[in-house]
Write a structure and sequence with these properties.
The structure is a homodimer.
Chain A: H1 6-17, E1 22-23, H2 24-32, H3 40-52, E2 56-61, E3 65-70, E4 76-81, E5 87-91, H4 97-100, E6 106-117, H5 119-124
Parallel strand pairs in A: 4-6
Antiparallel strand pairs in A: 1-3, 2-3, 4-5
Chain B binds a DNA duplex through α1 and α3.
Chain lengths: 125, 125
DNA sequence: TTGCTAATGCAAATGCATTTGCAACAATAA
DNA sequence: TTATTGTTGCAAATGCATTTGCATTAGCAA
C-alpha cells in the first residue's frame, strides 16, 4: 500500500506550483527548501513512481537533460532558455501539418523544441 | 599534419552515400564492410574530428541516441522510424512561425522531430 | 626507401545519470 | 500503542556511451 510521505507531498506540490518541466537537480533543490534532508535517491524513486502511475511524463533533450512534467496537459511543445537553462511550455501546436511529412512517411507523433531567451532573462538583460 | 587513412576515407564515403543521420553502431557496421578491422575508438575519434572541422554535425534524441550527419545541408528536420530505428532527413521546414512563439519569448532556433513508420518499413509490412 | 609521427586497434579507464542494498525511520491498520 | 512494512538517506554499485594509454601500424615528406 502506498504511503503519503512528506517527501512525496513536497514533490507533488512542486510540480503543481512550478508549471513547467523540471529536472532532477532543480526538483531536488526546490524540495530541500521544504524537507532539508531530501535525498536524490528519493527524488529518483518518486519520479519513477509518478511516471509509472501516469501522473508525470518524462521528456529529454540533449541540451537540457531529462525533465519531468505533469501528464495532465494538452498537446503542447517546449521552449528552452539558453540563458537560465529552464524549460517552458508553449501551449498549442505550431506544426504546419500540411508541410510536415514527406510522401511515404507515416507520421504518428512529433516534438517541437524552440530555443532562445525567455521573458525573464530578456527583461533582466 | 592530417593523414588520409583508409578508415577515414571509408567514414566519409559512408556519410556521402547514406544520405541520412547515422549512429555510431551503424557507422561501425557499415564501415566494417570496407575495413574489417575498423575499431569503435577509431570511429569515435574520427567523428569528433569531423565535427570539429565542421564537416559533420551532431544530433541527439533520447529515443535514438547520438547521430551524426553532414553539415552541408540546408535547414531541415528529422523523421525517426520506430520500426527500423533509422533517422531520415525531411527537407524544408514545417514550423508554423506565426504560431510558434509566445509573447516575450525570443526564439533563436528550433528543432522538429516526426516519429512514425518510414516508407520501406510500411511497404515491408 | 627511409624516418618521423599521426592514426589505429585493443582493452582498460572515465564520467555521469540512475539504481540499489541496507539499516534506520515513519506512515497506517488494527 | 503497537506491529507491520513501505520509505528514506547514504553510499556503493550499475550501465553505458565515450575517452584514453600504449604498443603497433602505416601515411607521407624528403
Amino acid at each position: 500500500m502506498i504511503r503519503q510521505t512528506k517527501q512525496r507531498k513536497v514533490l507533488q506540490d512542486i510540480f503543481l506550483k512550478e508549471n513547467r518541466p523540471l529536472g532532477v537537480e532543480e526538483i531536488l533543490s526546490l524540495g530541500r527548501e521544504q524537507v532539508t534532508s531530501l535525498n536524490q535517491a528519493t527524488v529518483y524513486r518518486n519520479l519513477k513512481l509518478m511516471v509509472e502511475e501516469g501522473w508525470l511524463e518524462r521528456l529529454a533533450h540533449e541540451a537540457f537533460g531529462t525533465l519531468y512534467e505533469r501528464a495532465d496537459k494538452e498537446h503542447h511543445h517546449h521552449f528552452l532558455c539558453r540563458s537560465c537553462n529552464r524549460a517552458f511550455d508553449l501551449p498549442g501546436c505550431a506544426l504546419d501539418h500540411d508541410n510536415a511529412s514527406l510522401s511515404g512517411f507515416q507520421v504518428e507523433n512529433h516534438e517541437i523544441y524552440l530555443f532562445g531567451i525567455c521573458p525573464s532573462c530578456s527583461t533582466a538583460a
